[in-house]
Amino acid sequence: MGEKKENLDFFQTTYDCVIENGTVIDPKTELRTIANVAILNGKIAGVTRAPLKAARTIDATGKIVCPGIVDPHSHADGQLFSGYVMASMGVTTIIVGSCGLGPYPVKEFLTGLDETGYPLNTAALTPQSWILREKAGIESPYHQATEKQIRQMAQWAEEDLLNGAIGLSLGLEYAPVTSWDEMAAMAKVAAKYDKVMPIHSRAGGWNSLEATREVIKLQETTGVRVLISHHVYQCGQGMMEESLKIIEKARRQGYEIAVDSGAYCDFACPVGSEVFCEGWQDIYDCTYHDILAGTGKYAGQRLTEETFNEMREQDPDASVTAFVGKPYEVALALKQPYVMMSTDGGFPNLAPGIGHPQTAGTYPKILKDLVRDQDVLTLMDFAKKSSWMPAQLFGLETKGFIGEGADADILIFDLKRVKDNAAFPGLGDPMAQPDGIDYVLVAGVPVIDGGEIKKDAKPGKSIFAKTELWKI
Known about the structure:
Layout: H1 2-12, E1 14-15, E2 17-26, E3 31-40, E4 43-48, E5 53-54, E6 57-59, E7 64-67, E8 69-74, H2 80-87, E9 91-96, H3 106-116, E10 121-127, H4 128-135, H5 147-162, E11 167-171, H6 180-192, E12 196-200, H7 208-222, E13 225-228, H8 231-235, H9 240-252, E14 257-261, E15 267-270, H10 280-284, E16 291-293, H11 305-314, E17 319-322, H12 328-334, E18 339-341, H13 358-373, H14 379-393, E19 410-413, E20 437-442, E21 445-449, E22 452-453
Parallel strand pairs: 1-5, 2-6, 2-7, 8-9, 9-10, 10-11, 11-12, 12-13, 13-14, 14-18
Antiparallel strand pairs: 2-3, 3-4, 7-19, 15-17, 16-17, 19-20, 20-21, 21-22
């Protein structure tokens, strides 16, 4: 009798919103069907084909209804402009603090975000390679940490994890002399609580294969769950197939290794960073002309030796894009069953006309190119890799699926119309809104409504991760 009453209550309730007649894609159950999705108090109350009453209905006939995107590698860091740009392509949850760079301490950042409001749900990693090293008094990325500094950084990292950080990140290419002892100390802290450690590996280009092996060795030695960051950016210069063989061998042996990658083969980074170390032209087989200024005085221009050196000296934080990748490496990486999607987007001081198109174009570009036009990925693959896999990796139990009890973080799009409009500076607007992304709901609240960005909508919540000692 109780079950019948509960069932009757479901069909008699007036919901906050019902998404009607959409093609529902649920990566958790691998269900694809036509159905109505009921939303109440920020949660999905149920999925049915029966008509339901609601304060608002959204007609999704002919459109895809799938979980909102969980970006496991964002640098939006609470910036409103970047948040709305990312929402415009379907992102509902971001994890910031990758590459050892991001807000710290995490508790203070997340608390402040809730106080001011933000359009996206946000979790944060403890950023080690830039932030904790600087805090420890390490003056140069080419200085090795002392034993005392390593102990201090490990203590700070543990405190940050206990205060809500969702993991601990390294950006080894930005701190190229990081010792094995320093890496292992950080990894042991994360492993103690079974936290994910995203790692921007020590090198790209022709040095990337050995850098991938180093990440795998760290997992083998400490047990930490590693996430290899933006893999096409690291190994997408012709080394992808070899790198994947290295990763697959380790995974077959039971190593806990995840990988994220994006829609582009040409990476962005600060012009003053250690990516452009001595010999970078040989490492990436490129010239100054292969570098495009994304921000700053020369935004939209290919660089010369003179302008490159000027930017390095006078505007080292300016973003540049290195056109060194092979486009075919993107599909090769993303079609692997263990590779999830990410942006690496949202760097500081973004504005219309500047930056890298990854912030506004990643997911619609994948949908258009790899799902619709090339049939490399299915819609179910897209939903898994953009939402379910990152949610599961980081323990976000109520995100990444369409079903009763899930957070009402939902993306509704028209596959026939979806198209990325973001372009590199000098060719167009890197922050241009895509076509075909019609609705993006965060906790049931539209941030994108009928294709329009609702710039007063701030329904996102900070995610304070639970931290407990690991045991089996």
